[in-house]
Amino acid sequence: MLVDRRRFLATGAIFAGSALTAHVGRAQTAWTALGEPVKSVGWLKDVTRVIVDTDPGTDDLLAIIMMLGSRRVMTEAITVTPGNIGYEQEVRNALFLSQTLNNGKTPVYRGIDHPLLSRSYPSAGFIHGRYGFGDMVVPEVALKPQPEHAANAISKIVSAHPAEVVLLALGGLSNIALALLLDPSIAQKARGIMIVGGRYEGIGTAVSFNSMVDPEAADIVMRSGLPIAMTGDLGPTAMLTQADFDKIATFKTPKSELFLKSNAERLKFETEKRHKPGATYSDPMAACMILDPSVALEFEAVHITVELSGTETRGSYVFGGTHIYTGDALPPNADVCTKASHDKFRAIIFDALRS
Fold it and tell me: 5-25 and 174-182 helices cross at what angle (nearest 10)?
């Protein structure tokens, strides 16, 4: 199965029309249903295979260091999706990480280089820097992208290992949505998808950068039937402070030095411009939940939709829907982490950077 431009454009036109019809025809919801507490997500236990779908920036870099360094979880592929910075730089960054961290053994796949409907979205260079890894100039490496399209690679890998592969979605969801459009069966074949985003604090809407990148893609994923887990908004739990950076500096390993060099500006931005006590690392938190699911202490099962039309809220996740006419709670389609262990989070990261 190959991604053909004419086929994709036709699919996109069909999708755009059907999505509009579904959106208009779908009954409006009222946001009054809180999520149901869940202690753990079963499919996150004993994960052995992952596809990392990423828009390589500073936090992605740390998550990829963690995943490629795991002896238990095999990263089958790195697929590059629209998100943090310019797409060509993202590809360059992904190739650099695979080459640097494991001699290019993890294949890198180019995906769709724009959102499904080619609509613009905010750049995140303000926090990731010009090159995605802060001010670090990323060198060109010998490793080249695989010839296969990321969407086809996702479908092929998931189909080859039914119920084993977790999609670790660190960026916009364009590649995964396209894979679902081309092969809807992967929603039943994948073990699940871990999505970074969803600042869930109860009912209502919340902005997530990754869903803002490609709201239509996020909508497709949310309605796909994939088992979905989200990092949620864990705030200080997913934070590394200056003291943590200082501790990492004592490791003096190639990985710790790469992290510090690429993330110094991120820490400075978050502490000076956002007035936080440290830098937040949601992508590494998602990686932690796969590597050691005990880091996640509580989840809530909740119904999530994606706002596709709002002038200021387009791309926001909408949590806790009830049918506006009947008052019935809409069935949950995702488990959102609401509480995690900061100590375990730091320990997993420190172990990854020491090696």
Answer: 100
Range of the domain at 256: 30-354
The number of distinct structural domains making up the chain is 1
CA-to-CA dists, residue 245 to 69, 341, 346, angstroms:
20, 19, 11
CATH number of 152's domain: 3.90.245.10
Q: Tokens standing for 310?
A: 């709002």
Whether residue 341 is contained in a domain is answered as: yes
d(CA 71, CA 285): 18
The token duo for 176 is: 């995964």
In a domain, 165, yes or no: yes
Which residues are CB-neighbours of 355 under 8 A, at least 6 positions away? 69, 253, 255
Asked, for residue 264, whether it belongs to a domain, the answer is yes
Q: How many CA atoms lie within 13 A of 257 on its CB side?
A: 5
In a domain, residue 342? The reply is yes
Which residues, other chains included, contact 147 with Cβ-Cβ below 8 Å and sequence gap of 6+? Answer: none
pLDDT tens, residue by residue, 82-134: 999 999 999 999 999 999 999 999 999 999 999 999 998 877 888 898 899 99
pTM: 0.90
Q: Which two tokens stand for residue 201?
A: 């604090």
CA distance 270 to 167: 28
Joined tokens for residue 344: 């375990």
